[in-house]
Amino acid sequence: MSIEEDDRQLRHECGVFGCIASDPWPTDLDVAQIISLGLLALQHRGQESAGIAMSEGDNHTHFNVKKGMGLVSNIFNDEATKKLKGNLGIGHTRYSTSAGSEEVNCQPFVVHSAHGALAVAHNGELFNAGRLRRMVLARGVGLSTHSDSELITQALCLNPPDIEIDGPDWPARIRHFMELTKLSYSIVIMEKDRIFGVRDPYGNRPLCIGKLMSLTDPNKAEEGWVVSSESCGFLSMGAKYVRDVYPGEIVEFTKEGFHTVSVMGRPHNRPQAFCIFEYVYFARPDSIYEGQMVYSVRLRSGIVLARESLVEADIVSSVPESGTAAAHGFSMKSNIPFAEVLYKNRYVGRTFIQPNARLRRLGVAKKFGAIVENVAGKRLILIDDSIVRGTTMGPIIKLLRDAGAKEVHIRVASPPLKFTCNMGINIPTKAELIANKLTIEQLAKHIGADTLAYLSVEGLKEAVTEKMPNKSAVEVGHCTACLTGEYPEELTF
To answer: By the 8 A CB rule, do 388 and 433 touch?
Structure first.
């Protein structure tokens, strides 16, 4: 993420992770440790709270659960993970959008139904949460939070349309839930000895599958399976990326492996709507989406940006680290050398909050220093991934001018943000978004830049799809609602 997080207020809601060992309990695989490593890799998706629910696979009435407020590393130390026994489990790291930052909203949510315990972790925001909430309450179900994730958990516990004969038919219940709401969710669900990975029919939120390779026995096919919001942590835990969970797919994981239970289509054959801002901003650059690495998409965004908005300059640089990949792409296309001009102080907390504009300006100064030798007397092109409120770029430009920059040209590797999300990303109200207040020329003057230019919507789409393996498939599509106001479905309340 770039510049002052609390000032920009562009945040994702959550990350989900699940793991199941290929051997029954007690397994040699430390599943709780794998899940904590997975959540640590997903920490950029949420820093408010984290939780893990574990099952030993032979008891449908009890899960081992640990949840708390704060960062993953503070909640799940060695002592905590040792107490989380089991050969399968799911985890969650959270940033709230639809419910408050309180311990009661920590996930995974665990409920005890007539059919046993069920644990659910969710990333996204239900497009029709109000209507679904009224339906659940009308069935006599009490809700203790305003979280969409608890709503999902209770909706799953309602009987599916068809009659169940031999116990609960969880796949049918999941399909029933998916019929009730098409957006927006990636969910991991655990009951007794299996995990389900579920992605909404539009594929708006990411979810992928990995195989845990044996580190000691080369003849063993795998030690287990993982399912995660992103693949960025797979290599560090000895896992290999297999594929994305497909839009609308329900995947069942057992100790024998995984298989597709069903795939739900989209109404009226509408295209997929994977969040395009996952590529721009949220994902770690080493994650794989739709068969391509996020870093490569950001590099191509810079290439297209240079083609669209080139200006004469001596140096191309970036706001670290969010704009770095795009800046390298811009440099490659323009033949203008890349050089660092800002140093980021990594010891300033991301939750550094200041109550007024002057102190926020000092906060930016605490985060960045200028590399004077690369700045003095130079014409600079500075690349960032996005501008939200426009209140932090000005102090950065002033810092560079004070260091002797002759010109500062701002290039943004995404189109202007103009609309709210309503699908799991905490974007400020339309009135707070600077692109709705000022023209590009006015904004350049406001922040003190010589020129300012954004990547076009078509340019971003080109960067995302150019190297996509199945880009010609008719169902391929991306949600650009925050950029264009075109939502996959009409918002209902």
So the answer is: yes
Quote the CA–CA distance of 284 and 293 in Å, as a whole number.
Answer: 10
Amino acid identity of residue 289, one-letter, is: Y
Whether the model pTM is above 0.85:
yes
14 is catalytic: yes
Tens digit of pLDDT for each residue in 58-104? 877 889 999 999 999 999 998 999 999 999 999 999 875 444 556 76
* SS3 annotation, the chain: CCCCHHHHCCEECEEEEEEEECCCCCCCCCHHHHHHHHHHHCHHHCCCEEEEEEECCCCCCCCEEEEEECCHHHHCCHHHHHHCCCCEEEEEEECCCCCCCCHHHCCCEEEEECCEEEEEEEEECCCCHHHHHHHHHHCCCCCCCCCHHHHHHHHHHCCCCCCCCCCCCHHHHHHHHHHHCCCCEEEEEEECCEEEEEECCCCCCCCEEEEECCCCCCCCCCCEEEEECCCCCCHHHCEEEEEECCCCEEEEEECCEEEEEEECCCHHHCCCCEECHHHHHHCCCCCEECCEEHHHHHHHHHHHHHHHCCCCCCEEEECCCCCHHHHHHHHHHHCCCECCCEEECCCCCCCCCCCCHHHHHHHHHHHEEECHHHHCCCEEEEEECCCCCCCCHHHHHHHHHHCCCCEEEEEECCCCCCCCCCCCEECCCHHHCHHHCCCHHHHHHHHCCCEEEECCHHHHHHHHHCCCCCCCCCCCCEECHHHHCCCCCCCCC
189-216: b or e for each residue (b if 16 or more CB lie within 10 Å)?
A: bbbbbbbbbbbbbbbbbbbbbbbbbbee
Q: What is the pLDDT of residue 456?
A: 98
Active-site option among 14, 208, 232, 482? 14
